[in-house]
Design brief:
The chain has 214 residues and is α/β, with parallel strands linked by helices. It has one domain: Rossmann fold. 41% of the residues lie in helices and 15% in strands. It is built from eight helices and eight strands. The strands form two sheets. Strands 5-4-6-7-8 form a five-stranded parallel sheet, sandwiched between helices. The protein is globular and about 50 Å long.
Length: 214
């Protein structure tokens, strides 16, 4: 998957958005997980400052992976993406035929045993609707590794490719695909939505993409 498959102007916005949303700001340096030092550029007022060049490169790589799975009609499970003021994330994932589970509605063993879990929840219409995962996902994208600890552990154990957002205190050695930064605020949530929408609404075939780009 080549970077030129995604419009360059969308990437040019990443630098500006990361700075204005303060995604560079991590947690207190005393909580820094030692293996995350390579993602940290320094400290300010005793708080970790992420290396934004590395963060941007992680974002690019993650977007390309998501687009690759999406373009091949593979199922992606998005876990913990917030819908604080709107239902934009839910609408996007439904329209693009992917799965999503919120933090509040997480159920243990849902990734690999979705059919069994849904049968046991038939009496609860809301949960049955939320957990309507008809097949094992091919890729998992986890928004908050620290908050979604149970989901993270289950995702790692499932051996399914995993993309996870992590802060300065999060253990980073258990996943290969990661995005380092301070993404737990409303502005960064909007940025994540914009980036995911820009990827999931791209044409799936190379020919249609090239035709649209002309």
């Amino acid at each position: 998957m080549k970077i030129d498959k995604i419009k360059q102007k969308k990437y040019n916005l990443i630098n500006h958005d990361l700075l204005t949303s303060r995604s560079y700001l991590g947690l207190h340096k005393l909580s820094l997980y030692y293996l995350n030092s390579k993602y940290i550029k320094g400290f300010r007022n005793k708080f970790c400052i992420f290396d934004m060049l590395k963060t941007k490169n992680f974002i690019k790589k993650a977007l390309l992976i998501i687009y690759k799975y999406h373009s091949l009609n593979k199922k992606i499970l998005f876990i913990g993406f917030p819908n604080i003021k709107t239902k934009n994330y839910n609408i996007l994932f439904n329209q693009t035929n992917h799965y999503s589970i919120s933090h509040a509605n997480w159920v243990n063993n849902i990734i690999l045993n979705s059919h069994q879990m849904i049968r046991s929840l038939k009496k609860n219409f809301l949960l049955t609707k939320i957990l309507n995962i008809k097949q094992t996902p091919d890729l998992i994208v986890l928004f908050n590794q620290t908050k979604e600890l149970k989901a993270f552990k289950e995702s790692v154990n499932s051996k399914i490719p995993l993309i996870t957002f992590l802060d300065s205190s999060t253990k980073s050695d258990q996943t290969y695909y990661k995005i380092s930064g301070g993404f737990q605020n409303f502005k960064t949530e909007k940025i994540c939505y914009f980036l995911l929408k820009s990827i999931l609404t791209l044409p799936k075939s190379r020919k249609s993409y090239e035709k649209k780009s002309l």
